[in-house]
């Protein structure tokens, strides 16, 4: 039966580690290589095939090493035989010298006969040994002649094997070139790896050829010692048979490789067609992708422009909102005097409306009670029809009117609560105006705190330092104005102040119109004296209003500082975002 090649077992072997295996296992693996005639290469990776070639080369190297060891053993045995022959010849010469000495000496015949008998016995024994050794030498000579003939035959066989090995190497090189072509088609990385592996295999084959040449030279040198090569010839015959089987196997494999190469050529053509089709598809897809990318880039640029425009619009809206807040605060300051009276008047109006609504509710409740009594009377009498429908409609209308009245009363209460809240807020504002310089101290504390926090580079702090200096100047001006107002109040001279549009400082109305200064001063003094005499509460309220205006201005200063800082930080964040977007 043909042996089955065990791919998994051979692939698990490591070529350098084969020398550590036992001889029986190595012989079994070699027999498996030689005995297999049909190889299933289809579906096998090229790396696996190259690994199997490496294993086979390692096995050949092991067998070559074993041949060299047997040659060295034969050389040692021949040297020992030569040494024994030399020793025997030396003994024979020594005995002949003894005979000559005994014959020349003057001894008695009896002693001489005894000695001669002993010497004859020794000679006979030594001659028998010589005859045996000569027979051995003759047999060894005949064996040498036979070995010489067998060596000649082996040389001829080795030359034939060399030719076959060369043919095998040529076929391997051809297959390697074809495999390289295939690898070039299917991948550059695999081609580079397989090329390196093939180069290493070529180097190993060259080393094997060199070793074979060395073995040939050794065989030529050992032709004189032919007796010692019996085991070598037997092993060489076995190797020859194995190599013949291997060559037959290689021939079969070459035929199979030719078939596989034809199949691979057809596959290559089909793969090239697929590759061309894929190139066309990729080209079309790249064109579509370029169009999509161009559209996307245009949309991105449009979005960037839109974002820039929206940011500009947002900045403008924020600026407008800031200006509107400023104007609203100025308007609130102007309306603080009139708002209290208006609120009191509104409260009185609401009280009147509430009283009217309460009267209406009482009237409607009375009418409802009357209608209910009438309805009950009609039910007791058992009358039905139009009267009942009329009464039901009147009852529904009365209920609806009552509900409307209740809702109006509830809304009036809610409005009263809101007005009360507004009155409390105004009273709180008036109390805060009477607090003195608390706002200025808090403003100074805020300025110092912001200065302490904003210790950064001089280049970044230039706009902030200018803003802080400007605010300090404003605070100083306000303090001076506050002192002037207090002095004027102590002296009894009350000036009327107003805030011009676009400014944040109080200006006396006398600066607005210098021509009317004396009359206005007289009118203001007369007015203040009249108020102090007839209505001291209103004069105190005017003083509170001026202090409230000062307090409100202090709050505005703090708010303006915080707003300027927030606007500056937002502007820097926008600049950073624009830089990142660009």
From TrEMBL:
<feature type="coiled-coil region">
    <location>
        <begin position="85"/>
        <end position="288"/>
    </location>
</feature>
<keyword id="KW-0970">Cilium biogenesis/degradation</keyword>
<dbReference type="GO" id="GO:1905349">
    <property type="term" value="P:ciliary transition zone assembly"/>
</dbReference>
<feature type="coiled-coil region">
    <location>
        <begin position="388"/>
        <end position="422"/>
    </location>
</feature>
<dbReference type="InterPro" id="IPR026201">
    <property type="entry name" value="Cep290"/>
</dbReference>
<dbReference type="GO" id="GO:0034451">
    <property type="term" value="C:centriolar satellite"/>
</dbReference>
<dbReference type="GO" id="GO:0035869">
    <property type="term" value="C:ciliary transition zone"/>
</dbReference>
<keyword id="KW-0963">Cytoplasm</keyword>
<protein>
    <submittedName>
        <fullName>Uncharacterized protein</fullName>
    </submittedName>
</protein>
<keyword id="KW-0175">Coiled coil</keyword>
<feature type="compositionally biased region" description="Basic and acidic residues">
    <location>
        <begin position="508"/>
        <end position="524"/>
    </location>
</feature>
<dbReference type="GO" id="GO:0097711">
    <property type="term" value="P:ciliary basal body-plasma membrane docking"/>
</dbReference>
<feature type="compositionally biased region" description="Basic and acidic residues">
    <location>
        <begin position="533"/>
        <end position="553"/>
    </location>
</feature>
<feature type="region of interest" description="Disordered">
    <location>
        <begin position="500"/>
        <end position="553"/>
    </location>
</feature>
<keyword id="KW-0966">Cell projection</keyword>
<dbReference type="GO" id="GO:1905515">
    <property type="term" value="P:non-motile cilium assembly"/>
</dbReference>
<keyword id="KW-0206">Cytoskeleton</keyword>
């Amino acid at each position: 039966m043909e042996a089955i090649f065990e791919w998994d077992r051979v692939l698990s072997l490591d070529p350098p580690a084969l020398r550590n295996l036992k001889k029986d296992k190595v012989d079994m693996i070699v027999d498996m290589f030689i005995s297999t005639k049909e190889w299933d290469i289809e579906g096998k990776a090229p790396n696996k095939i190259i690994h199997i070639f490496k294993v086979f080369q390692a096995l050949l190297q092991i067998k070559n090493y074993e041949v060299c060891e047997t040659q060295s053993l034969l050389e040692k045995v021949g040297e020992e035989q030569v040494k024994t022959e030399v020793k025997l010849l030396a003994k024979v010469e020594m005995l002949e010298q003894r005979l000559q000495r005994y014959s020349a000496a003057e001894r008695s015949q009896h002693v001489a006969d005894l000695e001669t008998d002993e010497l004859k016995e020794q000679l006979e024994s030594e001659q028998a040994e010589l005859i045996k050794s000569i027979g051995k030498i003759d047999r060894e000579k005949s064996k040498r002649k036979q070995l010489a003939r067998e060596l000649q035959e082996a040389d001829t066989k080795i030359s034939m094997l060399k030719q076959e090995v060369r043919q095998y190497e040529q076929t391997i090189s051809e297959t390697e070139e074809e495999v390289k072509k295939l690898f070039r088609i299917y991948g550059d990385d695999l081609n580079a790896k397989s090329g390196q592996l093939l180069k290493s295999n070529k180097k190993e084959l060259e080393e094997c050829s060199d070793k074979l040449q060395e073995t040939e030279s050794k065989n030529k040198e050992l032709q004189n010692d032919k007796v010692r090569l019996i085991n070598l010839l037997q092993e060489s015959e076995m190797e020859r048979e194995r190599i013949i089987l291997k060559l037959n196997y290689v021939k079969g494999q070459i035929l199979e490789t030719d078939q596989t190469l034809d199949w691979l050529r057809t596959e290559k053509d089909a793969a090239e067609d697929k590759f061309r089709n894929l190139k066309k598809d990729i080209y079309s897809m790249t064109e579509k992708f370029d169009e999509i990318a161009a559209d996307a880039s245009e949309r991105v640029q449009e979005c960037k422009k839109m974002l820039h425009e929206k940011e500009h619009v947002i900045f403008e809206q924020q600026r407008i909102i800031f200006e509107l807040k400023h104007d609203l605060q100025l308007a609130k300051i102007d309306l603080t005097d009139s708002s209290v009276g208006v609120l009191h008047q509104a409260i009185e109006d609401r009280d009147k409306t509430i009283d009217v609504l309460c009267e209406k509710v009482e009237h409607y409740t009375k009418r409802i009670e009357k209608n209910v009594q009438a309805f009950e009377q009609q039910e007791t009498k058992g009358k039905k029809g139009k009267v009942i429908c009329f009464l039901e409609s009147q009852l529904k209308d009365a209920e609806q009117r009552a509900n409307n009245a209740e809702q109006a009363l509830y809304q009036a209460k809610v409005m009263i609560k809101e007005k009360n809240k507004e009155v409390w807020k105004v009273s709180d504002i008036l109390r805060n105006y009477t607090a003195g310089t608390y706002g200025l101290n808090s403003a100074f504390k805020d300025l110092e705190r912001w200065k302490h926090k904003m210790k950064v580079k001089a280049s970044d702090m230039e706009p902030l330092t200018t803003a802080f200096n400007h605010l300090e100047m404003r605070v100083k001006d306000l303090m001076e104005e506050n002192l002037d107002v207090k002095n004027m109040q102590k002296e009894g001279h009350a000036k009327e102040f107003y805030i011009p549009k676009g400014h944040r400082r109080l200006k006396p109305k006398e600066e607005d119109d210098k021509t009317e200064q004396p009359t206005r001063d007289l009118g203001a003094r007369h007015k203040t004296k009249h108020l102090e005499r007839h209505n001291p509460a209103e004069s105190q309220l005017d003083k509170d209003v001026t202090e409230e205006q000062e307090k409100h201005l202090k709050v505005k200063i703090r708010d303006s500082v915080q707003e300027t800082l927030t606007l500056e930080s937002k502007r820097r964040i926008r600049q950073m975002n624009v830089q990142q977007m660009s």
